[in-house]
Structure formats: structure tokens, C-alpha cells
Amino acid sequence: MSKPVTIKLSDARLDFSSFRIKKVGADGVEIFVPSATRTLRVTVKKGCTVAFSEGSSIGSWIIESCFGPPVSTPGFAEQLVTVEDITDGTAILNLKIRRAR
Fold first, then answer.
1. How many other C-beta atoms lie within 10 A of the C-beta of residue 73?
2. Strand order, beta sheet including 90-98
3. What is the DSSP track for 10-61?
4. Burial level of 19, CB count in 10 A (0-12/13-18/19+)?
5. Would the pTM count as exceeding 0.85?
6. If DSSP codes are grouped into helix, strand and coil, which group holds residue 71?
7. E strand or H helix at 77, and its extent?
8. 44 — phi, psi (to 5°)?
């Protein structure tokens, strides 16, 4: 990746419509999520998964885990991003929506 990229999401269950990959480094992928309450920022390491979401009454949050999927937040849909691999500045991501329970 030679420049930042925005990934658009089409799932109406989420309170945001995109997130931005700012940088792919040897040790992780830097992700920004524009949010109504604040901008979320996290660097996700290879093999790890991050869940991010937003709720109007409780704000925005990020939950990261390197030991399987993060614990879900009851009542909210979450975007999961797993960094499967990083090679020569290119990251392979696995994207998944986790439905509200």
C-alpha cells in the first residue's frame, strides 16, 4: 500500500459507513474510524482482531484481541477486522460484521 485507503461499508446496522487504513507497517495496520462522537484509532497487529462500534448513548469503542474474536458487546452490531498477514507493506484483512444480540 503506497497511500491511505478508505474502506466503505454497506451494512446499515453500523453507525459509521467507512474506516480508513492509514498505514501498513511491519508490526501492524493503523486504522482510523470516523465516528459521530469521536475518531477511533488503533494499530492491529498481525494475527489479531479488533471490533469497533458506536452507540449514541455510550459513545464509541474498540475491543482488541489476539486470542480469537473479541468479546461481543450485547445490543450492538460491530465491525470486526482481523489482520491475517502483512508482507512487504501489504496487509490481508478479514472483515466481518457481528450482529447485535
1. 17
2. 59-65, 49-55, 78-87, 90-98
3. --TTSS-SEEEEEEE-SS-EEEEE--SS--EEEEEPTT-EEEEEEETTTEEE
4. buried
5. no
6. coil
7. none
8. -100, 125
Alpha carbon 27 to its chain's center: 16
pLDDT tens by residue, 48-66: 998 887 665 556 677 888 9
Cα–Cα distance between 56 and 51 in angstroms, integer?
17
Q: How many CB atoms lie within 10 A of CB 81?
A: 23
Q: How far apart are alpha carbons 80 and 64 in whole angstroms? A: 9
Residue 26 grid coordinates: 511491519
Alpha-carbon span 90 to 101, nearest angstrom: 34
